[in-house]
Amino acid sequence: MRSSVSTPSPPTRRRLRLLLLLGEEDNPRACTGRRLVRRGDARSVVGPIPETHRPIVLDPHAARPLSAADLASARRGGLLAVDCSWNRLAERGGLPGPVALGVPRRLPLLIAANPQHYGRVNELNTAEALAAGVYVLGDPQHAAALLGGFRGGTGFLEVNRERLERYRTASDAEAVEAAERSLFGAD
Hints:
Largest sheet: 5 strands, parallel
Number of strands: 5
Structural class: alpha/beta
Number of helices: 6
Number of domains: 1
Radius of gyration: 17 Å
Helix content: 25-40%
Strand content: 5-15%
Shape: globular
């Protein structure tokens, strides 16, 4: 006879809140950021971000890399990506206003697997960037789910598996930088 008491299921991990500031610079149908918003995987940020909800902002020009030490901040404020051409950002006067209240972090060195920039260091599309951020912050399953359905999505995780694992297990920004030096031969 079966017991009426059920076995408790393992606790589910609360996924990070993903935010996106759309730069409106590319073909809306090809934009990976817009696709994440349409699928409900990220929320579009339109107005100012309240000072009490300072997200981690993925900024390739930030001095400190994203690391496990940023997880508590990301849980509080979310992880924000800016969907724009970072090459033309200086022409426009820097990051838009809502982003100024965030905590800037750059992604550690990774190889792009998207069709436009395949094999290039840190020329990630928005979906790859958010997935990499989620992975580094400790949730590889969420990262894989984010990349599902994108051309090159699973390839991104395959190409960067060792790097992502090393960055995910690094305790802080200094350990991430040491891993970068080791992985990219800059010792």
